[in-house]
Protein 1
Amino acid sequence: MKYSEFMAKIRKGELPHVFLLSGEEHYYIDKAKEALLGRLFPDGRGREDALQKVDGDLGLDALLAGIESAPFFADKNVILLNGTNLFRDSKQAGGDTKELDSLIRLLGDMPPYSYIIFIAPYKADKRRKLYKTVAKYGLVLESEALRAWNINDWLQDKLRSLHKDMDREAYAYFAGAVSMMQQVSLSYLDQEFDKLALFSKDRRITKAELVEVFSGLPEVSIFALLDAISARDSKKALTLLHRQLADGTYFTVLVALLTRHVRQFWQAKVLMKKGIRGKALAKPLELNPFIAEKLGRAAAGFDEAMLKRAMLMLIDADYLLKTGQAGNEVLEETVILLCRK
């Protein structure tokens, strides 16, 4: 189940004795783990005596013994396996054994005083008997990595928790800024929005405040440059390019993001030929729907032959800059080509 459903389950009703927190988005796993431990140890009482944390895996014999051992100085026995490999596919995890079969049977009939929390920082193999057993008798969190195109639920939840909102201009900037991130760090965004809530007096978060938050990230500060290229505004694009270079942005970052932008234009044109348009471009391009729609409108004005030429120029620029055979003029030439109407 997804994060919101998992959290609702552990907030209400009696807790099961088996949990699996799995997936690539560690932010949700950490939040779920702390909420779960908070339910098991209200006000922290008994946590020190009852909680046994293990990084990696215990031997299965030791794990079985630990689950069945009655607690001495607490009313429960909680084992947390952080980084377990038990839920990888059978080849990686070493296949099934008699000890694993014994663990599977025990998880289906846990002692009333024992709880076990498996943390698997990868996509768990749902075909395994162990996974199916945990899903049947306990709770499973599937924490998929968030990307720019599916971050809206997180954003709305975060704004509600802060009692804040943002207008269309601020949202457009946020969506564009996040779309520039190769990987979305929810931990980073969470911290920055907490800071905004402390220093923003008004309920509504402004674009200016968001610009200040994201201005230190090279990928995001290039957003204005790519926006100018989308608008075919060569004067503004060249000015912003020179500013990036003067501010010390490495050419490798600029080449990578320019290449990505050209590739997205090219992909959008191919998709639009197949009838995929507007917000429907979001999923195949892995972009926020708002940004995907905007990108599609801009892509319509670019010629495929010109995009191919720009891609080849960027490949050459990467090699020439890395080998010291050219200067920043190769980036300027590409920007001028892309802005040519």
Note: Residues 251-273 form the longest helix (23 residues).
Protein 2
Amino acid sequence: MTGPDIPTTATDGQSESLVSALANLSHAAEAYGRTWRVRMVAVLHLMTSFTLAPLYLLPGLVLVLSATWIGLTLILPWLPNPPSVGPVPVFPWAPLAVLLAVTASPLARLACRVQHGRLGAVFGIVESQPPDPLPSNGVPRRVVGFLFGREAWTRVGRSVVAGVHALLSGALVVALVVGGGAGAAGALLGVMYALVLGSPGEVAGLLGLVVAGPLAALAGLSLAPYLVATEVMLHRALHLDAPEVRVIRRLMHVQDSRLRMVDAAEAERRRIERDLHDGAQQRLLALSMTLTRTRTQLARDPDRALELITEAQRESKEVMEELRQVARGLHPRVLTDHGLPSALPVAAGRSPVPVEVDVELEERPSHRAEGVAYYVVCEALTNVAKHASAERVAVRARRVAALAARGGFLLRVTVADDGSGGADPEGGSGLYGLWDRVDAVDGTLTVHSPAGGGTTLTADIPWEA
């Protein structure tokens, strides 16, 4: 007796269809979950912006208050009976209003830095060109420009605009999501309370809130990513230049840097030529004449020839030392063979100022990065000896992680002294040359040099430059 035929092919096809349907459902659920996670993150981001909105609006509020205060100070003395605060009239407090206005610029810079930092940390949007770390104006002009310059007022305006957007978008999302959810929960409790008390007439209105609350929350969750996108667009327009502006600025920067590097190379070539002509060339000529005299005296007066050979040997050593002095600052062999841990102490040993060297590098960076770092340290030590009047110098080299948006590692070289400070790039200290050398490998150079407080020079060089 034979049993019925089993449709194995049809069964396998049904299993495959079921597995495919389950896989599609799983992918759809995963995509759905990702979508809602993105929306929740967007809501949290907007709530953070809403929390920061008072900081963004504070510079504008400070300016409005100080302007109102100053205006009242100018108007009140002309009134018949000017009001007063306690025993002191209002208008003598005008300096406080001016001082309040001065704080608007630092507050705006802080707010813009927070906005700029959030662009980089959250969305990975950073400036392609770092600002010039070596301003050429004097300290008073820098202070006035920092507090009342065009950039200061621009930052106040940017901060206020960003604050208005953060306040409106955050308030809208908070009202929809938090208010809708809380309203629905409260209405649901109210329905339960009304049913317990036996008041069915109030249930209808509460049920409307129970339905409208989740709908409002869903609307807020759906709207949140678009509000975040508008915030990103606004902050990019406020804090980042347009691509064509960045290209033009970069071209102008490259042109200026190239001209300075050409001038520096020409000056270095003339120095080497002058040193060779005045020093080594003259000594080689004297050595040649001494050897000629030795040849003529060798047969007639061997003792005199021996003295001349001794003199020639001494002159050859002096020529070698002279050539070492000429080549000082060029790429030394110890750097090529052993790297910065061995080369920097050699450079520090030539400095007339005591130098403490601290180098901790687990591995060697690229040869180009090592050369730039060595040049920065040598030039910085030369500047300290010439201009700083320092008693000690500290040189430090470390491998540090770059910003998350940039990635990779940096070779950070720091040269700090306890000298007079006040380093000025226009004073012939070679800071522009150092900056050009570091910037040529996409590094950054910062100089902190308050008057009387010493100078700290920090170079961040890409590890694989």
Note: The beta strands are 84-85, 88-89, 355-360, 393-401, 409-417, 444-448, 455-462.
Protein 3
Amino acid sequence: MFRFENPIYLWLLLIIPILVLIRFLVWRRRKRQFRLLGDAELLKLLMPDVSRVRPMVKFGLLLAVLALLVLMLARPQMGSKISHEKRNGIETIIALDISNSMRAEDVVPSRLDKSKLLVENLVDNFTNDKIGLVVFAGDAFVQLPITSDYVSAKMFLQNIDPSLIATQGTDIARAINLSMKSFTQQDKVGRAIIVITDGEDHEGGGVEAAKEAKKKGINVFILGVGDPKGSPIPTGSGGYMKDRDGQTVMSALNEQMCQEVAKAGSGTYIHVDNTSDAQEKLNDQLAKLQKGDTSSVVYSEYNEQFQAFGILAVLLLILEVLVLESKNPLLKNIKLFKKK
């Protein structure tokens, strides 16, 4: 990957077309002055050593040198260097429920948007930790493999929508099982699965999956989003989802199921409402997990490339000095710049 560390200096390249314009105006003025002196063919015979092409070549070389100096100031870099860093932190897999019921608006602006905001704030609180994203409804898949790249985590988070999974429903067990397989093989590192859901588990097996995670040393936290009293589910077209009888579907947070899964997974159940309490409680719980050394591959270090531009600029400058404006009598038979 090629980039410039100080791209602001690239604006200096606008000087080049300005210099070309000035050079053109000077050339036109000089040409008019020569016409006033006499016949063009006669003047050419009187000045046999004068070259029309050489000054243009020298000017072009100087412009190239100027452009290369500007590029040097902008610090061209290439991201071909890979470094391995040792970090001391935890590994966290976020399993986010994206079933249609997460569109409910009993939590502002909606259950899903509130969950996304919570995850984004969680990522901002991370420093040396790793994070992965799993999305689930009636099925589950890895949205982002576990990584230390928080920028990518936020980018993938923004693209999450219920339309990503065609199979609707809520299969918490599948989400937990997939999350367990998504951790690294690093030893002595605190691991947590954070399931964010409204608790409408249609498939069952969540408690058993959480117990299996506990056996592997993984804590399962459940963040229940929504109101236990229930809320209608927007369709996106101004109405609400209805059942076969034409009745409005009400989606309620199943706190009891969430608490059972969290207890089985040696984690904590946290209710997510319109306050920031859930965020603070989650941060406190994660801070208690054992931190261990994790290895991260970092691509953000770039090799400086300005040396190549500098060498080329020096070579062109030497060439510009060697090219004389007038024809060299010793090389008059070599017509490099003569038009055919």
Note: The chain has two domains: 2-79+303-331, 83-297.
Protein 4
Amino acid sequence: MSGHASHAGHAAVEAAQLSEVAPGVYSYVQPDGTWFINNMGFIAGSSGVVSIDSTSTERRNRAYMDAIASVTSSPVRVLVNTHHHADHTHGNCFFSDATVISHAKCRDVMVAAGIPDYSAVFPGVEWGDLQFRAPDVTFEGSMVLHLDDRCIELSDLGFVAHTDGDIVAWLPDCRVLFCGDLVFHGGTPFALFGSVEGTIGAMDVLESYGADVIVPGHGPHFGGADIARVLDEQRSYLRFVQETAAEGLDAGRPPLEQAQAADLGPHARYTDPERLAGNLHVAYREAATNGYEFPGVPQAIMDMVAYNGGALPRCLA
């Protein structure tokens, strides 16, 4: 499909790709993986289903629930939130019979934020009837879910990466790894709510699993030789951000000015390039020795809009 439905300016929910990446293990990839168009996945067992993340709008969540029902009649008993961002957690409310699990710090941020009003930056999105639902169970470190005879290992990183509270879900029997937004496959990595350095470190953690298939938070799932390639591409971009920040700090240029002067080079092919301006704020904060002060997320978002020449980020959700 073209990626656009009759909803003008919205990506088609019908374009979502449901794939069985291992026996009873499914990825649900939503093109084109840009703002608020994330991926989910689920593990289907005879006694129930474990879902990895929900999604951003009522329409998209209902389409995802229909996709689950298309392959199993078992109920969703557990929903795992890989991190706090709304495109992965807004749909918690639609899984009323499921226990929602997250990292403790993920829940803390969710409770503090509720359901934010994104209309100023992402106008025109049909969010639907969303009700805030916080996770029911939290952990730090690791925990194991048992679904029939299958183990699903949930682990944090032990450090801040995409957010403070990222977790991954690992299925050792089939070597499938769900990694949330630690990876944007084909998209620009985004560290505004976390750490550039930490996200680079997360690539080493992901690689250490020796997975056969990785399901990222955005973009197509990938496996085999593509794993090393995709993780190296993510590292390369994040190191470019660090190098660009170092140049900007040396020149005394603020993050927005440095972003506008930077040549994205091979990274220009990624979606959502305006994230460079936000990422540079984080890289400046991590590298600065000259008294740079982070102005806060709202200013960083304004800089991303300015980087776009005043255009709001492209959101087709």
Note: The first helix runs from residue 58 to 69.
